[in-house]
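Re: that backbone. Tokens:
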């Protein structure tokens, strides 16, 4: 009954509720410091272009392209009490590599309406949907670069110098919002995503973007309670859907918090196996013990019909905090999904707190051996520092550690395969590492096969890049 009431309220008096929320936000006392606006998260205030970058070691000559990373960076000082890390205006950071050299570093706000207003510019072109802060991921597809977010906004097309070209629903072929985490099928060249939006809490959508950049499928999936579905996975036969107990919270919205999602113990936790071209009625829903998953490393099917997914599983999420992640435990787990029994078995692969899992994505949806993750501080994850990356060998069940040293804070690292690679870990890992003591940042390039060795190359950036979300290598 509560869900039906909330649905009626949202559809009938949205303007009135938003007005109440705005008043409550205005009345919030703003004395406390928000941890997602200071220290590692303190926003940058300027857009820079740096052409003279110090390099230690040797940048692989095979790397021709840009490393780009997206993340929140408020363009105007926000009200600290109401600010949530997931909602800051988007800023891209990028380094251009070519012929063994680092040609430039740039940072640019992605032009949403508020950013354009703060910078005194005309609004960026293109249609909007729900909102236009696109701050979570940046990917290449169909010869274009796309900045992405979930919950209702359209993608944004990004130019070669990190400029905002347009808010763009894939050339008008996308009917609603998109996802922060599409997954590229290495065999078909198509992107698969599970999308949701807060104003339509009873439906998800399986979206497939063809290799030509046009959306060819938007299949609705009925749900209850408005679940926040951050990521998904694909296997040979299925799209794997995570319907977990973080749901839309009308209470938090009315109270004035801009991020209206919270832990909901009454929401049944389940995982769905949807045939790639199937309908909602074809989904095999399987119960799982309550937890929350932001990110899935990879998934595949076994010969006996089981589906394996490797995830970073938070014990809870947004149960207390109104500003950012607040889980107490987040191990790396392997989930074995049995479609015949409609059951999920959870196995802890590594109990250490960790996030942002990435595989060699040429093996996405297929059996694989190596997973790379970012270590988290055991307390106050994403606020305090942990200077490690992990390389998991899922065959031997062993772990290697790359320690960047004291005061170093790595973000997510992406695996870039070497051309004509002969082994799964034949390639490089790259990502930003902040030196909190010096207030500087390095783009580190590791040889993935020599994971614990010193970086192959370090590109120094003479300022601190704020903690952010997802980055990718965009080849030229």
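Recovered sequence:
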């Amino acid at each position: 009954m509560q869900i039906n009431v909330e649905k009626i309220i949202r559809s009938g008096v949205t303007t009135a509720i938003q007005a109440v929320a705005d008043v409550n936000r205005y009345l919030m006392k703003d004395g406390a410091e928000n941890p997602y606006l200071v220290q590692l998260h303190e926003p940058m205030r300027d857009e820079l272009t740096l052409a003279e970058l110090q390099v230690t070691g040797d940048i692989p000559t095979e790397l021709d392209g840009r490393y780009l990373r997206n993340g929140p960076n408020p363009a105007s000082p926000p009200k600290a009490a109401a600010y949530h890390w997931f909602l800051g205006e988007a800023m891209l950071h990028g380094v251009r590599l070519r012929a063994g050299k680092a040609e430039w570093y740039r940072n640019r706000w992605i032009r949403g309406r508020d950013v354009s207003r703060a910078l005194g510019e005309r609004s960026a072109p293109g249609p909007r949907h729900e909102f236009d802060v696109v701050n979570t991921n940046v990917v290449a597809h169909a010869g274009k670069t796309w900045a992405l977010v979930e919950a209702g906004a359209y993608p944004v097309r990004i130019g070669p110098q990190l400029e905002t070209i347009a808010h763009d629903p894939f050339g008008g072929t996308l009917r609603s919002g998109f996802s922060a985490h599409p997954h590229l099928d290495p065999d078909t060249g198509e992107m698969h995503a599970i999308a949701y939006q807060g104003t339509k809490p009873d439906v998800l959508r399986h979206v497939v973007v063809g290799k030509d950049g046009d959306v060819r499928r938007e299949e609705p999936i009925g749900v209850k309670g408005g679940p926040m579905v951050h990521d998904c996975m694909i296997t040979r036969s299925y799209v794997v859907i995570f319907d977990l107990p973080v749901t839309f919270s009308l209470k938090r919205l009315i109270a004035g918090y801009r991020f209206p999602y919270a832990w909901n113990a009454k929401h049944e936790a389940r995982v769905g196996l949807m045939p790639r071209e199937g309908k909602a009625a074809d989904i095999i829903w399987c119960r799982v013990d309550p937890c929350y998953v932001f990110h899935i490393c990879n998934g595949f099917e076994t010969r006996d019909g089981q589906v394996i997914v490797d995830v970073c599983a938070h014990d809870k999420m947004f149960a207390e905090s109104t500003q950012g992640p607040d889980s107490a435990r987040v191990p790396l787990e392997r989930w074995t999904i049995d479609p015949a029994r409609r059951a999920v078995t959870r196995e802890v692969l590594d109990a250490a707190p960790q996030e942002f899992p990435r595989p060699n994505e040429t093996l996405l949806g297929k059996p694989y051996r190596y997973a790379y993750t970012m270590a988290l501080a055991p307390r106050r994850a994403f606020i305090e520092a942990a200077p490690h990356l992990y390389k998991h060998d899922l065959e031997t069940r062993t772990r290697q550690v790359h320690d960047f040293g004291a005061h170093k804070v790595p973000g997510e690292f992406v695996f870039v395969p070497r051309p004509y690679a002969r082994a799964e870990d034949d390639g490089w890992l790259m990502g930003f590492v902040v030196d909190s003591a010096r207030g500087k940042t390095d783009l580190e390039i590791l040889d993935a096969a020599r994971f614990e060795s010193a970086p192959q190359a370090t590109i120094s950036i003479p300022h601190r890049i704020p903690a952010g979300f997802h980055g990718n290598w965009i080849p030229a």
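The two ends are 53 Å apart (CA to CA). Residues 2-475 form a domain with the Methylamine Dehydrogenase; Chain H fold (CATH 2.130.10.10).
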